[in-house]
Amino acid sequence: MPDIKEYIQSQLSRAPLLLKSLVQDEQGKAYIQRRIILRIRKYVQDFIAGNRESRLIVIPGLRGVGKTTLLAQIYFELIEAKKEVLYISVDEIVNLLGSDIYTSLKEYERLLGVSFEGLDRDVFLLIDEVHFDKKWQSVLKTIFDKSRRVFVICTGSSALSLQSTPDLARRAQLEKMYPMNFTESLLMKTNIDPEQSEKYPVAGLGSEVASALFEAESGRESFDRLQAIEKRVNEYWKQIDPLEIDAFMKRGTLPFALRLKDDAAIYQRTMNLLDKVISADIAETTKLAPETISKIRSALFMLASNDETVATKMAVNLQMEANTLFAVLEALERAEIVLRVFPYGSTESKVRKPSKYCFGSPLLRLALLSVVEGSAAYEKNKGKLLEDLVAATIYRRYGGSLLAPLQYDSQKGGADFVVSLKNRIIVEVGWGEKGNRQVFQSMLKVKADYGLTISENDLAIDETGKMIKVPLRYFLLI
């Protein structure tokens, strides 16, 4: 096993070969880049131009969204620009070499022949899976304070955004990486460069849809705003094969799945991803006992088949103490494998009634269900998968500014979600034609301002002006 000196030397010489497979296929054709690279590239360019304020970029996100690929793409751009750059994986440093970030960077300073504070040239550090070192924050804070010539991009689990200390938060730029939405997924499938991506669909259309749905003053205003952009929405969908919706729901949210043709291979890769989250991210960054870690996969199967979780029953089935189960669910939530949706109501209701758990990507639930239900899993569970997508979309759009923008109506026959932004909005989702009964029932209970039924209906509003039928093709543009 190499020591840390050999590892750093190897990374400097062999990184182009090691990272090459992440940025191009076997024929040498470059993989399409995700849109987030435009923002990261801007930070790099500003730094090179002399703006030294934003020189620590933290990118948390669910496994499988493409964080390592993003680092590799930035790495080759820096190499092409003849910059000094080091790429390291903290997973390897901690778990294979028994070392840490501090020791690794000290060795890199020795190889540079100068300390970071003594640099007279720019150096770029690309640090992958930084969460495996529990002292990552203090190390990066020290580097930031030591030198204005060092630019750092680090990636890690979704929990990084929750763990950040106030001292680091003042120094770091947080750029969260989410699963893909429909339009970005289609761009990657059709080989559209991210530099051109804002044109597809028309720039700002997705934001207009989101604002019309969730930021209107009334149901009538929401409908009028949706109707005003109907022509532009329809123009976009004229170019799209309707089968792309099912393809997106099955595989389109996580980039790696777009490269695989066989559903079985996609589901196996996704299960491997989940196992990695359990055995590495959760096992290494929590205090859960090994016997508890071994039961997390079973817990995920239960969540996949029944998203409203009665904790006491689930704990009994897993032969686990209730407090331990809550710790497991919290770990899965922090990793963004699942998104917790509290029941609507008082604090007492939130404690007494079960929470709903949606998955951070529909593909995660589908892979779990396919183990039991095989090829029938998608058609049998399309409704739940669509709920996952809606929850993840609202979380991506508004979760950064609000701790709990999403709740659900726990009464029997209640609607899927209650969205609490500037107004209170009921949301019911489903495939095919759907009526307004559940929306109406929940609107009365929570005194909502208006309600949305997202399905394959045409755009319409009821006679009260408070209940809107929203075509799925609108929502998919967000």
Can you give a write-up of this model?
- The protein has 478 residues and is an alpha/beta fold.
- It folds into two domains: 4-174, Rossmann fold, CATH 3.40.50; 199-475, no CATH class.
- It is 52% helix and 14% strand.
- It has 25 helices and 14 strands.
- It has helices spanning 4-23, 36-48, 67-80, 90-95, 101-112, 136-146, 160-163, 166-171, 182-189, 205-214, 219-228, 230-237, 243-252, 255-258, 263-285, 290-293, 296-305, 311-318, 322-334, 347-352, 362-373, 377-380, 382-398, 437-446, 472-475, and strands spanning 56-60, 84-89, 123-128, 150-156, 173-174, 308-309, 338-343, 355-359, 406-408, 417-420, 424-429, 450-455, 460-461, 467-471.
- The strands form two sheets. It has a nine-stranded mixed beta sheet with strand order 6-8-7-9-10-11-12-14-13, sandwiched between helices. A five-stranded parallel beta sheet has the order 2-3-4-1-5, with helices on both faces.
- Helix 6 links the parallel strand 3 (123-128) and strand 4.
- The longest helix has 23 residues, at 263-285.
- The radius of gyration is 23 Å and the shape is globular.
- The termini are far apart.
- 42% of the residues are buried.
- The model has no long low-confidence stretch (mean pLDDT 92).
Observed structural traits:
478 residues; alpha/beta; 14 strands; 52% helix
Can you lay out the helices and strands and say which pair or pack?
Blueprint (H helix, E strand, L loop, with lengths): L3 H20 L12 H13 L7 E5 L6 H14 L3 E6 H6 L5 H12 L10 E6 L7 H11 L3 E7 L3 H4 L2 H6 L1 E2 L7 H8 L15 H10 L4 H10 L1 H8 L5 H10 L2 H4 L4 H23 L4 H4 L2 H10 L2 E2 L1 H8 L3 H13 L3 E6 L3 H6 L2 E5 L2 H12 L3 H4 L1 H17 L7 E3 L8 E4 L3 E6 L7 H10 L3 E6 L4 E2 L5 E5 H4 L3
Parallel strand pairs: 1-4, 1-5, 2-3, 3-4, 7-9, 11-12, 12-14
Antiparallel strand pairs: 6-8, 7-8, 9-10, 10-11, 13-14
